[in-house]
Amino acid sequence: MKKQAFLLSLFALILMASCSSSKDYVYLQDMYVGERYPIEQKHEAVVHCDDRLSIVVSCKSPELAIPFNIQGGSYEVSADGRINTAGVTKEKGYRVDAEGFIDFPILGKIEVAGKKVSEVKNIIQNKIISGSYIKDPIVAIEFLNFKYTVLGAAGSGTYSVDGDRITLLEAIAKAGDLADNAKIDRVLVIREELGERRVYEHDLRNKSVFESPAFYLQQNDIVYVEPKYKKKDKEDKTLQYTSLLLSIATAACSIIYCVK
After folding, report:
1. Which of the 8 DSSP states describes residue 139?
2. For residue range 110-140, what is the model confidence (pLDDT) as tens digits?
3. Is the pLDDT of residue 37 over 90?
4. Which residues pair with 108 in a beta bridge?
5. pLDDT tens for each residue of 208-246
6. CA–CA distance, 92 with 104 (Å, rounded to integer)
7. Residues 6+ positions from 179 with CB-CB distance below 8 Å
8. What's the rounded mean pLDDT across residues 160-175?
9. In contact, 70 and 77? CB cutoff 8 Å
10. DSSP-assigned letter for residue 107
C-alpha cells in the first residue's frame, strides 16, 4: 500500500507541474547595481507621411503671428487678408500628405517628411524671417496622432502617445507586459523608413536593447512579440489537460495492477 500511495503522489506532482505556467525570463540580465550606463538624451521624433502636426507661431507682437495660426480653430484668414473669428471650426493641425508636404499659411507647401521636429521648426522660422514677416518668431510643434501597435505574445492593441517620446520597454509595459509564452529574445519592431519596411530584432535579456535604433519608437511602429507556441483557446487547453489526466490515471492504474 505504501508503494501504491507513493506512486499516486508522484503522478499527482507530475500532473501539477505539467499544468503550471510561469514566466521563465528576466529582463536586462547583464545590467548590475552600481554600474553606470550611457543614455541618449537627444532623441527626436521623425515626421512621416500622414502625421498630424500642431504648429503654433508666436512672437512679441501677437497680432503679427495670427496669419500663421489659421489652424488653431478660433479664426481664419480669407483670400483678401481679412481675419474672420465668427463660428470657425477647423480640423486641428496640419496633416502631412503622401508626398511629405504640409500646406502652411502664407509660406505655402513645406516638405517635412523624414525630418526631425527641430529641423521642421528651423525651416519655418527661417522662411518667416527671410520673408520679413516676423523678426523673432517662436515655433512650437507637437504630434497630434502619435501612435504605435503591439501584437503577438503581449497586450495586443494600438496605443496613443502623449507627445512624441516613448521607448520600447515603456510600450511593452503600457500593453500589460509580455505574456507567459513570449520569446524574450525575439521582440521585433517593424518600421517604415524611406518607403520601405525594416525589422529591428531585440533581446530584452541584455542591455543591447538600449543601443537599438528602434529603442525609441517612431510614429506607426509595430511591436511584435514572437510567441513560443501558438495560442490555444480554452477548449483546446481543457482537451489537452483532460487527455493528460486520463493518460496519467491509466498509467497509474497499470502500475498499481502490476505491483499487486
Report:
1. E
2. 999 999 999 999 999 999 999 999 999 999 9
3. no
4. 104
5. 999 999 999 999 999 999 998 765 554 455 666 666 676
6. 13
7. 153, 154, 225, 227
8. 91
9. yes
10. T
User: Can you tell me the distance from the alpha carbon of 199 to that of 189, in angstroms, rounded to the nearest whole number?
Assistant: 6
Q: How many residues does the chain have?
A: 260
Return the percent helix, strand and coil in the chain, to nearest 5.
Answer: 30, 25, 45
For cell 480669407, what's the residue? 78
Q: Hey, what's the cell of 95?
A: 496633416
The C-alpha cell that represents 104 in the structure block: 502652411
The grid cell for 155 is: 497586450
As a whole number of angstroms, the distance between CA 62 and CA 56 comes to 11
Left if phi > 0, otherwise alpha if psi is -120 to 50, otherwise beta: which for 243?
alpha
Residue type, 220: N
Average predicted confidence (pLDDT) for the chain: 81
Taking alpha carbons only, the member of 205, 147, 149 closest to residue 23 is: 205
Q: Is the dihedral of CA 242, 246, 252, 255 positive or negative?
A: negative
- Maximum CA extent, the chain: 105
> Are the beta carbons of 183 and 154 closer than 8 angstroms?
no
Q: Phi and psi (nearest 5°) for 165?
A: -135, 115
Q: What is the pTM of this model?
A: 0.70
